[in-house]
Amino acid sequence: MNKLTPLTRADILGPRFYAPVRDDFRRRIMELKKHRRVTVGDRVTLVFENRDTLRFQIEEMLRAESITSDEGIAAELEVYNALMPDARSLSATLFLEIPRELEAKTELYRFIGLDEHVMLEIGGHTLRAAFEPGRQELDRISAVQYTRYPLSEAALAALRTPGTPVAVAIAHPNYRERTQLTEEMRASLAADYG
Known about the structure:
By secondary structure, this protein is of the alpha+beta class. It is 35% helix and 25% strand. The protein has one domain. It has a five-stranded antiparallel sheet with strand order 1-2-3-7-6, with no helix packed on it. It has a four-stranded antiparallel sheet with strand order 5-4-8-9.
């Protein structure tokens, strides 16, 4: 199955049927995410999404919220399919991680404007993150952000080429960090594109 194809109701087990397979499925997804999770400095983590990671999120949400109706499942499918990467873009969930001992509101305030300063570098191609609207205002920012990175044909070809350097760079005035992805991470992202 193509890793970019939107999920349908037929792909979702729901809480009753998910429970017996949850441990094995979680282990598989955690292993997959090892090659899709990028820590950028000490406050930002990105998880690059695909069909498997989003299916896992839906199953976990349905379980946590005890959602079993077809309408409820359809609503979750709509939310998470909007985060699905496609043939022309990568997609990642970005987490702002604030240590418990710090005041979250104050620390998050420092990140306002982050949506202008996150880049994915693939070889010589720099892709500016497009952030989901509504998760930041003039005086506040959500600790969870949904980002998309538009892929040109040349950037996609570079991503598919073994050994191409890939990095996430943040150049926010209050947070400047850059992390090089491993070759295993590049290969995991490229595998979504056949």
